[in-house]
Amino acid sequence: MIELASAHPTTVHTLPNGLTVILREVHSAPVISWWVAYKIGSRNERTGQTGISHWLEHMMFKGTPRYQQGELDRLIDRAGGQWNAFTSMDHTMYYETMPSDRIELALDAEADRMMNALFEPEEVESERTVVISERRDNENSPTFWLNEELRAAAFRVHGYHHAIIGDMTDLYSMTRDDLIAHYGAHYRPSNAVAVAVGDFETAEMLAKIEQYYSDLPADPAPTLFTRPEPEQQGERRVVVERPGHTAFVRVAYRTPPATDPDWFALTMLDSVLTGPDGNIDNKTSRLYRRLVTTGIAAGISGSLEETIDPYLYNIGATVSDGRTLEETEALILEEIQRVQADGITLAELEKAKKQARASFAYAAERITNQAYWLAQSAMFGDLHWFDTFIERMNAVTLENVQDAAQRYLTSRTRVVGWLVPTGMEDEA
């Protein structure tokens, strides 16, 4: 058993069957959030089975021999709790946030469906229809197509090249046996991390967890399918033509994983260029002033995700009517070159840090979010990632930001995407 340095008592324990358990006492409210995270996401999927992790997540709500479909919905709602799940590129997570005195329902539910999920043929086909419909809904957005093509150009080999929802051809062709095999290979204690945060005593909570999970099979951890991406040899460009009237630009660069110190410098750079994450106004960001205030773009955004493997820093702009893709892209590149040549100011860096601290503090108020970030940290293989987030952010210097811009935002690792609108079909 390991004690983590934290503002709240935190313990890490591994059960004999390989399940890693993280417990954090937070006595601010009579609530406990229980998360079970599996080390399987879309990055581990093979061609022909893209989207299988997300589809499997849907099947986990279809019941077990003990809990019929819909029964847990009613029980958790009646207990005053909430539950949900999501699939990411790197992992799949399930959670319940419950009144403290009803947490055993969550423990039982997740232990049961870790081993006993049902795959009734009619339910498999029903969810096939659901995920295909979800994919079609995504396709109604022009930027979905642009982002998909950009990602595929950036990653020729690595599993980050396809969308979490999967390719349509795979959603039609995958079978029930594929889902069952994927479930059996990856949903096991040795491939999972369980996190509890909230109003409990550690020894008592651990005893409850052992009661529900210690008898689950001690199968070895699976060998996860991954393919390292070769080094990019030069700029790549994609052009997507879709019905509509609005043009979009994406400029993306290969960036390090979230555990790399440079990731935090790039987060500060993103805040300066496009604005901070969260519900904070970005009108003072460099690219907003350069593009939106001047009427060249209708909107600007930046995206730097927390990932296990190197991914992308993505800058996006919505081109204003009467302006061009060429000039919008050129101005984005000019601002990047300015940072590379001259750096950012101390005032910009301090503002970015202040905004990051505010967003982090707001998000961390919720017990559910705290549990999620601990689970995320475990997925990264760095249990201190969440607890040291602000410390690492505060340590970023002006030199770190300029160096990161020079190192990662290069033409060699750049991928540019244009969405060219073709008008609407009924206008022809």
UniProtKB/TrEMBL annotation:
Domain of life of the source: Bacteria
Pfam entry (one): Peptidase_M16
Record domain Peptidase M16 C-terminal: where: 173-355
Domain Peptidase M16 N-terminal: 21-166
Gene3D superfamilies with a match to the protein in the record: Metalloenzyme, LuxS/M16 peptidase-like (3.30.830.10)
Molecular functions per Gene Ontology: metal ion binding
Alphabetical list of InterPro entries matching this protein: Metalloenz_LuxS/M16 (IPR011249), MPP/UQCRC_Complex (IPR050361), Pept_M16_N (IPR011765), Peptidase_M16_C (IPR007863)
Protein family per UniProt: Belongs to the peptidase M16 family.
Name under which the protein is recorded: Insulinase family protein
Organism: Phototrophicus methaneseepsis
